Amino acid sequence: MKKLLIGLVGLMGLMGSLRAQGPFSLEWHGFVNPHYYADSRSVVGGREDMMLFYPKPIVKDSLGRDINDGWQANMLAITARLGLTVEGPEMLGANTMAYIEGDFTGSTNAAINNLRLRHAYIDLQWEHHRLVAGQYWYPMVIHEIMPMTNPLNMGAPFHCYARQPQVRYEYHLLGLEAVAAASWQLDNMSQGLLNGVPASSTLFARHSLVPELNLQLHYYLGKHFFFGAAVNLKTIQPQVATVDTVLQHTGRHSSFSWSLFGRYSGPGFTVKAQALFNNSLYEGCSLGGYLMLADSSFRDWHFNTVWLDIERSTGHWRPGLFLGYAKNLDHGNTDFVHCFGRGHDLEYLWRIQPRLTYKTLTGLDFTAEAEYTHAGYKEPVGNLRLSLSIVYAF
Q1: From edge to edge, which strands make up the β-sheet containing 298-301?
Q2: Could you tell me which residues come within 8 angstroms of residue 281 by beta carbon, excluding any fewer than 6 positions away?
Q3: DSSP state letter for 57
Q4: Of 76, 75, 71, nearest in space to 42 by CA
Q5: Which residue, 21, 288, 314, 389, shows the most beta carbons closer than 10 Å to its own?
Q6: Cβ atoms of residues 296 and 250 within 8 Å
Q7: Which residues, at least 6 apart from 92, have a Cβ–Cβ distance to it below 8 Å?
Q8: What is the DSSP letter of 240?
Q9: In this predicted model, what pLDDT tens digit does every residue of 364-393 receive, in sequence order?
Q10: Structural contact between residues 198 and 189, judged by C-beta atoms closer than 8 angstroms
């Protein structure tokens, strides 16, 4: 880690010395974000549970006590971020830009505190067209309406939150924007049977030969309103063999999801909302998945999700509120051999999350947040997360 940090500092110095040379403009930016959080019970999550999805169910020990009940607390600074924007000369009639960004959350729980690639893409912008190639937001992450919550989950699992290698094309004309994307997997992998054993791997998507496909239509109405719809098709090969002792199955399974969303940016406040009809967006840190039946066929299980985020957008004090609700349309179904995904044992999930941010307007922010998530297991449970954070942006 010490060598890595020394290398980053040296690279920043080298890039800074080259700023005035050639046709390229370089700009470094990022932030440091120490974050303290406390939970009233154990949760399903990632990265030391900083990425919170929902509380764990009641599990009793030999004396009848719930082992998942009880307060826990932690503090991390792994979301510290460093990014580089490179603006270049006009090429092929387009304005050109490249962007690379990393943080220290690691690509897996086991790699936490290690440098991780967040974004790395080339951006070509014509008058009405835009082409993005590289690692960018997962297509079902609609960044124009991303919730403004402070923790790592950013509204997940109600709103998707992930990044994928992809090719993305946009066409803009008279307030309308059409988007088409083809994406692949890396950090966020599908689940399936690898050599007959349940596992997470990019092999399930790679063996399908079909990238995840996404189409969107956006409409900008004046300065204040933004509306849109998205459809998503994911195809995987749920069973993959890499050893000769396991029979190779080449059957594919496709999952279709779609979404409606909007944003209002008014004088002094912003409102964002989304309805997500989710068949299998596990890779997007959302809910839903698919089942393997006794006859070795596969079918999706579905979640319908809605959420709303409101925030004051001016002044030093910025109160905000996130509300989310998800309903499992396949709850109670036990007619399967394997279940892949997230949240199948939930009948419903809801969250209420008020926050208060103080902005100095010079790059230093302080946020206090209370996040209550209620999980509809057979015996419903709730978790209260209290968090405090500081952001120093540069």
Answers
A1: 298-301, 288-292, 338-342
A2: 140, 160, 232, 234, 257, 287, 288
A3: P
A4: 71
A5: 288
A6: no
A7: 124
A8: E
A9: 999 999 999 999 999 999 999 999 999 999
A10: no
Structural domain spans, the chain? 2-393
If residue 36 lies in a helix (H) or strand (E), which one and from where to where?
strand 35-41
Where do the H-state alpha helices sit in the chain?
A: 2-17, 203-206
Count of CB atoms situated within 10 Å of the CB of 123: 20
User: Tens digits of per-residue pLDDT, 310-325?
Assistant: 999 999 999 999 999 9
As beta bridge partners, residue 121 has 99, 134
Low-confidence ranges of the chain (pLDDT < 50): 1-7, 9, 11, 14-15, 17-20
CATH among 3.90.78.10, 3.20.20.70, 2.60.130.10, 2.40.160.10 for 2-393: 2.40.160.10
Partnered with residue 342 across adjacent β-strands are: 288
Query: In sequence order, what DSSP letters do the residues of 192-234 get, joined into one string?
Result: EEETTEEEEETHHHHTT---EEEEEEEEEETTTEEEEEEEEEE
Model pTM score: 0.91
63 Cβ contact list (under 8 Å, min separation 6): none
Say if CB 234 and CB 282 are below 8 A apart. no
Q: Kind of pairing, strands 239-240 and 190-194?
A: parallel
